Amino acid sequence: MDYQPLKYIYKASGTPEAYTLLLLHGTGGNEHDLIGLGAEFGSHINLLSVRGNVLEHGMPRFFKRLGMGVFDEQDLRFRTEELLTFIREISAKEAFDSTKVIALGYSNGANIAGALLVTHPDALAGAILFRPMPPYKELPSFTSADHVPLFVSSGQMDPTVDPESIQQYVAALTTGGFSVHHVTLPAGHNLSQQDLDLAKKWFDNEFR
Ligand code: MLT
Description:
Shape: globular
Number of strands: 11
Bound molecules: D-malate
Structural class: alpha/beta
Distance between the termini: 40 Å
């Protein structure tokens, strides 16, 4: 199967050395969903918001799944490479620095960002993972030589994510060299204001 282009919205900050936030929506979302949230990180940041290429009963996703929380790992591998190829191509077209891309993903979007991190540990300059779960049953071995900074937020009452698997995932990311800031919030699967406030604070510290 050939790679397909992803639908996207790009908003340039006008600052040549700017970081780019790569916005990755949850299941059933689209490229418009996270634009407002991304804008909260400041007007000095470029925004690249993309729509997942997979449809599940009409709902866009970034990769196929076999059931709730059970991923089609072959498709995940393919879609991750497709996304990375797309980012590189679009960075040339839109003239942003592909070495300064920070993913911000929610749920399914956080999961493809996680898949990208564990297969290409230094492809991103950082990542914000809201309500992620481990992208693979068995994670590959990986090393982030650059100690890429990650913000991870989980919801204490999230019915879709097994808390133990998140602890193991965070531990594996840390052992693999990532610099992980993990918070567990009194929330469910939905995002809360606290997620955004803490992520922005972390972002300002890391990427000022
Ligand atoms: C996924 O499929 O990535 C997770 O189950 C999260 C979701 O999209 O509901």
